[in-house]
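Hi there. Long-time user, first ticket. I'm pasting a complex I've been working with (about 244 residues overall). I'd like to know whether the download I got is complete or cut off, because the file seemed smaller than I expected. Thanks.
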Amino acid sequence: MILLFALAIGLPFGLGWARWHNHTYSAPDLRFTWLAVIAFLPQLVIAYLPATHQLINNGLASVSLLGSLALFFVFAWLNRSLPGMPILIVGLLLNFVVIIANGGWMPISPQTANLLAGKDILQLMNLGSRLGEKDILLLTQNTHFEFLADRFVLPAWLPYKTAFSLGDILIGLGAFWLLAKPTTKLNSLCTESVFE
Amino acid sequence: MKNKIVRFAFFAGKINRQHIQLAFSILALAMLVLGIGAPTGSTNPGPH
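Hi, the file is complete. Here it is re-exported in full:
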């Protein structure tokens, strides 16, 4: 959910920037959006819908996750000319590499998971168990490309705790930039009409 | 009731193609970042 925050601040930033410079604001001209919908459907089932994510075994779920990421890569590549998309593609590839290298899931160490749970996570679950939507609990020494894993956390004084990867940071930056620095063109959406 | 219908028609008339395009773009971007990102939040650290 932290990545949606990048979109939530990118849009008002873009609208404000356009208004400040007396420009028109246009939404990023994404092509092949149907591909994003198709790519998201498997993840909706295996990761985001509480009613269905336990119904599918881990093997099939990880294959579906990889297939979904591959489709998302095609979608992002087809839209690579948009501002911010190249950064987002690099983030996607970093996450893709670490997920492939670790059996189809994003690794997270028990130390990092403890920071989220506030207690010894190994008392609750075993190593190799799925954690959250796409993560798997792995010891650091058993993790491939550990520097690309979910190893960063937000400052402790923030009420929302989350662990994220280097790829996630780039994805957030790219998503922010996609909405904050859109293409400006004639006959596009006026900022005034959005604020009305 | 008539007032509400008039008000709805007024706001519906202000929705143009660009508004719809913006809504679809944001929806597609939301699916994209949720799909390719893999953060784990404190709301969902539990085992599955």
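A couple of notes from our side: Chain B touches chain A through 30 residues (CB under 8 Å). Chain B has a mean pLDDT of 77.
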